[in-house]
Amino acid sequence: MAVTDLSGNLSKEVDSFKHDIISGERNDVDVINKQGTSIRTSGSVGLLSALSLLLVAAMRRLWS
Amino acid sequence: MSPELFALTPAATHGEVWRLWTGHLVHYDFRHFLTNAIAIVVPIALTDRRSRRSIVLSMTFIAPMISLALLTGAHFDEYRGASALALAIWVASALTLLRAQSASDRHTGAALITLAIGKLAFETAGAGHLWTEVAPLPLAHVAGAIAGVIAFVSIQHPKTLDQTISTAQY
Predict the structure, then answer these.
(1) How confident is the model over B69-105, as pLDDT tens digits?
(2) Do A37 and B34 touch (CB under 8 A)?
């Protein structure tokens, strides 16, 4: 009985922890799954790429 | 409404089909959203009005294609972000500009395609974390770039498509 309660609570806590990571509440921690991928995967272009694109747009304005 | 309901997860292939589209629309935070939004708006704004419309419309079928490719080729609990779509729009816009009449358009297209190739090369070499603050999925951007080529090819023959539609009506 106690062991069943313990595993149920543990599973609930793990789910809650994963939720905190995915929602960004724990940016300092990451969880990697068996395949080596973060559970919080994303499509993110990133600041550097965004700035490079803005630079291309600015240069285009200067050319034309 | 919780963003978890809209993120791309394996549940998309088990009845929650909307996730194939909405996974590209939800983000982890404002900075994540903003950088992806810039990567969508800037390349598309550089193209002419007609191409812009065609590229944006093509994203309605490109988005689920990318999602299915990610679900097949990667293992993740949850995926959010528009960067794969951004790469598709980025590449489709660059190829459109490369075919334009004016030299300035062609130069812009060349700059965009060079940037995209450089980004993909860095990410494939494992340096993707230098470009972003959220754990990136390199396959997403490769799939996005391939989808961009497909979108570009699909919008090249609008007359043929119009003829097909009008023929189908009769």
Answers:
(1) 999 988 787 888 898 999 999 999 999 999 988 899 9
(2) no
Total domains, chain A: 1
| Structure tokens that stand for B92 in this block | 């489709």
pLDDT of B30: 86
The model's pTM is 0.78
Residue B165 pLDDT > 60: no
Q: How many CA atoms lie less than 13 Å away from B121 in the CB half-sphere?
A: 6
The token pair at B145 is: 């770039």
DSSP three-state, residue B23: coil
Distance of CA B41 to the CA centre of its chain: 12
The partner residue sitting opposite B140, judged by closest CB among A19, A33, A43, is A43
The ipTM assigned to this model is 0.80
Helix axes B83-98, B30-45, angle to 10 degrees: 20
A41 and B78 in contact by Cβ < 8 A? Answer: yes
Q: Which chain A residues are within 8 Å of B144, Cβ to Cβ? A: 43
Q: Considering only the beta carbons, identify the residue of A38, A43, A60 that sits closest to B46.
A: A60
